[in-house]
Structure formats: C-alpha cells, structure tokens
C-alpha cells in the first residue's frame, strides 16, 4: 500500500535551519499535491506549505520568506527547507499527499515528525 515516510525533524536553536523530507512509496498512483501541515499544543492543525502537480506553491503567511517547499518527481519526494527558525515554529509537522489511484483521489498522512526550536 502507499506510505508516506518523513524525516528531518529535531531540536534546533532559534535562527537555525532544518530540512524535512517526505517520500511516497507504493504502486499505481500519481501525485496531485503534496504538502506540510503542523500542529502545536492547544492549536488546530494548519497548512504550512504545499505544492501541486503543476508546480504552484502556497505558504502560510507566518513562514513566507523563511520556508521553501520543493519536490523531486523522480523520487516522489517533497522537501521543506526551514530557515531562520523561531520558537513559535515548534510543532509536530505532518506530510500530506493527495494521490490519484485508479481514477480516484485519495488522501494520505505521514506519521508526523517533531520540530522543536529553543530560544
């Protein structure tokens, strides 16, 4: 079955950088969109950034100019480069993919990876 495998989370000081990766594996699918969401304690899960099949990107206002989403189509992998990290970026980050399988669109979530930014 299709799986999303995330990596790259960890602990970093304010002003530092991290790069998250999410790879989709499996058979008989094509990617309509991939992106990253995050959820901090006591807050609702929110979109951080996504990228659609045509290459267009979207970013939350809070991360514009600091985060960059990109993809490697040959590897079915999406990346999130996070620079100038702030303590308020601390959250669990979840990879999300909208996949087309046998004419249907199906959503998948990764297991989440913790990002902690210390001051």
Helical region count? Answer: 0
Which descriptor suits the 3D outline? elongated
> What is the end-to-end distance?
41 Å
Radius of gyration: 14 Å
Poorly predicted regions are none
**How much beta, percentage-wise?**
over 45%
Strand count, sense and barrel status of the largest sheet are: 7 strands, mixed
Helix content: under 10%
* Sheet/helix structural class: mainly beta
> Order of helices and strands, N to C?
EEEEEEEEEEE
Compute the average pLDDT.
Answer: 95
Structure summary, number of beta strands:
11
Q: What does this molecule look like?
A:
With about 120 residues, the chain is mainly beta. It contains no helices and eleven strands. The protein has strands spanning about 5, 10-15, 20-25, 30-40, 45-50, 55-60, 65-70, 75-80, 90-100, 105-110, 115-119.
Give the helices and strands, then pairings.
Blueprint: E1 3-7, E2 10-13, E3 18-25, E4 30-39, E5 46-52, E6 57-59, E7 67-72, E8 77-82, E9 91-101, E10 104-109, E11 113-118
Parallel strand pairs: 2-11
Antiparallel strand pairs: 1-3, 3-8, 4-5, 4-9, 5-6, 7-8, 9-10, 9-11
């Amino acid at each position: 079955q299709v799986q999303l495998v995330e990596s790259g989370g960890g602990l970093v000081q304010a002003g530092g950088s991290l790069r998250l990766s999410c790879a989709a594996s499996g058979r008989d699918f094509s990617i309509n969109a991939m992106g990253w969401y995050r959820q901090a304690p006591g807050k609702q899960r929110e979109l951080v950034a996504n990228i659609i099949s045509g290459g267009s990107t979207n970013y939350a206002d809070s991360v514009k100019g600091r985060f960059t989403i990109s993809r490697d189509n040959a590897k079915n992998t999406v990346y999130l480069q996070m620079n100038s990290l702030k303590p308020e970026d601390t959250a669990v980050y979840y990879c999300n993919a909208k996949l087309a399988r046998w004419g249907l669109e199906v959503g998948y979530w990764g297991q989440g990876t913790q990002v902690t930014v210390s001051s």
